[in-house]
Amino acid sequence: MRNLTLLTDLYELTMGQGYFNEGRHEEIAVFDVFFRPNALITYSVAAGMEQAAEYLENLSFGEEDLDYLRSLGIFTEPYLNYLSRLRFTGDVDAVREGELVFPYEPILSVRAPMIEAQLVETALLTFVNHQTLIASKAAKIVDAAGGGVMEFGLRRAQGADAGIYGARAAMIGGCVGTSNVYAGKLFHVPVSGTMAHSWVMNFPSELEAFRAYARSFPGNCLLLVDTYDTLRSGIPNAITVFRELREKGYEPKGIRLDSGDLAYLSKEARRMLDEAGFESAVVCASGDLDEYSIASLKEQGARIDSWGVGTKLITSADLPALGGVYKLAAVFEGGKEIPKIKLSDTTEKITNPGVKELYRIYDNKTGKAIADYIARGGEKIDEGAPLELFHPVETWKRMHIENFRVRNLRTPLIRGGKRTESSRPLSEIAAYFRAEKAHFWEEYTRRDMPHIYKVDLSPALYALKTEMTARGKGVIT
């Protein structure tokens, strides 16, 4: 495994030296990871916690790292000597991968000596921001398609790591396979793919190209039919090869369309395949697809069984960054919690202070999620008593609920620098996401004009935030 300790911004290290020089590097601090609202965010799918845990467990400065930092000429030898012995010794609480999450929620919190907690900011945001973004995009594409989506984005990803871990995130979001062989091996997920147009172009004729491919893969023959003329040559030639395969005892897999009017072509392809007796042959489509184009194709009656989605998935084209942030929530002095708050003239940028709990509230009658509830650390919710929820900004918006159950969304990820449990298979994480999504009304997760899911503060947290904001200081004693 690569040593990613230097996967950080320089200011994390300069602040670290400042804390070290001031004798505050062992002061216990709590930081929260959360993201702010965006017009395109209806819900997000948490991912990247696995890589975050691996990074924290393996945090250490090697000799080459220290030599490089020394070469910058800005760090002292006592500080570099301290870094040579540094390991992550803190605690991390996080939502499970595959959890549906919403703006302002502390989806991951770090409690550690200040220098450790500060140093890991950049890397944690890198892992969680990227994979949560891609898992969320994949979930929306899969929802539009109704399933059967394959991730085809490696060649358009913003670098190798984005392609590898984007494929991982896409599987969490519901994709059934990836074209990325490296990701398939690394994460034990299905890989898929057949041929490119160059294969067809490299033979004297399209029919010969199809026959050659069928000879190599008689039991898994899926042919790309749009190299020259989809309806006049591609599909007829595919049908010819399919008949030859059937005579040899094989059933064809199907065809792939990669260009043109996919709605019209897929309907004609389905008709031609059915009339030729290949009703079970699938029609796969690819070509710059996303949830919007897929939804449109389905509305037009397209007869497409599976979807290969690349560029717009792996880059999350319409929202290229999640915008997650890492903010100081509290420090501890003599074992006492000192809440911290970031103030701003922009209301949305004022943080929620202090150590926090994150709960999800479900209606016992329907089993559906009602709201998420951010409370102060250690606060419990009495399921036997009525609960009042109120909007944290427009406080006149209130609702009273009874007959509900509560679930703590976060679990221990790291304790004392070590993981609390082994990693889970991606299939299990994806199944968890599907099960949790079923607890949400469609109105909250739909693509167009969704209801805004409630994320409320407890009265105690609201009172703390209000008092600290009114004081105009980032600290309250």
Structure description:
The protein has 17 helices and 21 strands. A seven-stranded antiparallel beta sheet has the order 13-12-1-5-3-19-20. The protein has helices at residues 10-22, 49-57, 63-71, 77-84, 114-119, 121-145, 160-172, 181-187, 197-201, 206-216, 230-247, 262-275, 291-299, 311-314, 426-437, 442-445, 459-471, and strands at residues 28-35, 44-45, 91-95, 100-101, 108-113, 149-151, 177-178, 222-224, 254-257, 282-286, 306-309, 324-333, 336-339, 356-363, 369-376, 387-390, 398-401, 404-408, 410-415, 418-419, 454-457. Strand 8, helix 11 (230-247) and strand 9 form a beta-alpha-beta unit. It has two domains: 10-134 and 320-471, nicotinate phosphoribosyltransferase, CATH 3.20.140.10; 135-314, TIM Barrel, CATH 3.20.20.70.
Percent in helix: 25-40%
DSSP helix count? 17
The CATH H-level homologous superfamily of the largest domain: nicotinate phosphoribosyltransferase
Helix-and-strand structural type: alpha/beta
Largest sheet: 7 strands, antiparallel
Please tell me the CATH architecture of the largest domain by its name: Alpha-Beta Barrel
Bulk shape: globular
State the separation between the terminal residues, measured CA to CA.
44 Å
Given as residue ranges, the uncertain stretches (5+ residues, pLDDT < 50) are none
Q: Report strand %.
A: 15-25%
CATH topology of the largest domain: nicotinate phosphoribosyltransferase
